[in-house]
What does this fold into?
Amino acid sequence: MAGEPILDVQDLSVDYLADRGAVRAVADVSFTLGPGEFLGIVGESGCGKSTLLFAIAQLLAPPAEIADGRVAFHGQSLVGLTDRQLAAVRWKDLSVVMQSAMNALNPTKSIGSQFKDAMRAHRVSDRSEIADRSAEVLRMVGIDPVHLKSYPHQLSGGMRQRSMIAMAMLFTPDLVIMDEPTSALDVVAQRSLMVQIKELQQRLGFAIIFVTHDMSLVSHFSDRLMVMYAGQVAEAGATRKVFDAPRHPYSAGLLDAFPSIRGPKVPLTGIPGRPPDLARPPAGCRFAPRCPQVMDRCRVDAPELYAVDGVDVRCLLYDGSSDDE
Amino acid sequence: MSEIQSREAPAAQPPQQALLRAEGLTKHFKVGGTLSRRTLHAVDDVSLAIGEREIVALAGESGSGKSTIARLLATLYRPTSGQIFFRGQPMAGRRSRAQTLDYTGQVPMVFQDPFSSINPAFRISHGILRSLKLHRPDLPARQRQEEAERVFEAVGLTPGHEMLQRFPHELSGGQRQRVGFAQALATRPKLILADEPVSMLDVSIRVGLLNLMAQLRDTEGVSFLYITHDLASARYVADRLMVMYAGQIAEAGPTEEVLARPKHPYTQLLLAAVPDPRAPLDVSAQAEVGEPPKVIDPQPGCRFRWRCPLAVDECQTVTPALRELLPRHQAACHVARADEEVRPFG
It folds into this structure.
């Protein structure tokens, strides 16, 4: 990681306010992101990964609210900024690519006019400048600029998602936050989009936070990986380290849940059970009810994040006091 | 363990008497207004056979026609042309309500989305008891309850009598999809049409449902048409694999054989796109930006030719037919050869 971190998230917690009390969807998440770094965040539905993204981008809407912690972007705290202050940052320095491009694009406006809106909002009014830049970013993602005149329904799912990414590139931001941008696409389109994102990142040098439920998807693209379970960070470290030797039983289970397309065919079991209800999280480790390596004290003591060989792991197997084997 | 090993057994011998057979199955949809009437060829001239106790995977990108095939086989659509035979009997002759009920009971469908396919206003028992009453009217009420409990336990929803009393919102996605399988199982099916049954589920529980399909094949003798876009899961569970492209079968054969020696360039492209965390890092692969065509008023010629690096003149004008290149292994490609390794992708 070179230079100062561009994003610094410390002890971030997000609550959903409900009648019977607050539900903590994200609990004490901390990480920093360097310039040009690619962070993959993986986890299953309800683990808090999308809520975390929304909290970082200040897109939470009631009943969700940041309960604690801070988010600093280029040293400036984003928590508590007014919409007007945030507007100056959004698109220009930080852009967000949402899960479903089908719904994120306005169906009644051409691609070009949506690009124009974003640029005008940031006081770029010169017509030829807008036209040139719009064509340029569309070309970057491999779409012919004639499609600036096209409406979203005239494009395929893959092209719509690529236009969303092109739109995020309009101002060459330092950070692009992506929430499952490929999950609605086919394997071939998915693979090609990932390669394209990585190429763009190498060329333009922006940092990426990429949220996905598909661990294998980011395996070849992210520098660091953060595995979330039930609102907490379960394991975080260099992608290769986590893949080659997953330490948390949940990461190991997730990795083993994918049938392989090559190599010997082995019976798999997945991870039986379901994630806990966050309104009533279990005492001790939140993964204990599903964990194949559970020990007695896992049901009592809540594990912290322990540093093991440069990887942070929230598991009592690594707390240094391995008394009960 | 036994599930995985016994999986190879039925694949070793070709299905003698096919359970379900389709010949020249074709489904066209009219698109456009009155002045620009055009025809979308969703499925074009597909022939296939599914044997007893066999899991056949039908793989392809979205828009390739795989779900249309499932709906044709489920008789939700009437084919534009072509025939479906169930146990040798043509479907076209079956018209009465009793015949339809008999067929939909023996060939039920499990849908992709377990969150919208169960009525949220009723207990889980509601749907399955109704289905039993409809399809097996000879069962007295008390035995219906027992049978519902039996199929619930068979799909791993235990204890059955308790799970039946739950409401859908009390179940996880994986459990709901098991309810879908239980409902299919209740009508004593011979073949379950499973349209992307795991793609909406969390990764950690998908494999449990794939194992369930193999287990039902082995213990209940049910065959499956497993529709998926995920080749790795097809490899895990299916005895045979059919790859579809733009409404036609591109390649078919025993799963391991097709994946080890893919003959059609499209199968090779699909294989190369599968993310494999165990494989070494390789970002150098070029981005393939081609997309499957919308098959509207197609001209003759191979439908993959625009994306195919191997295309020759013949591909522009002659639609390739499925040819047997290796024993039981067919591909619809002019260029593919039995003995040669031609690998444009990956």
Q: What stands out?
A: Residues 36-96+225-276+288-346 of chain B form a domain with the Rossmann fold fold (CATH 3.40.50.300). Confidence is low (pLDDT under 50) at residues 1-15 of chain B. Chain B is about 35% helix and 20% strand. The radius of gyration of chain B is 21 Å.
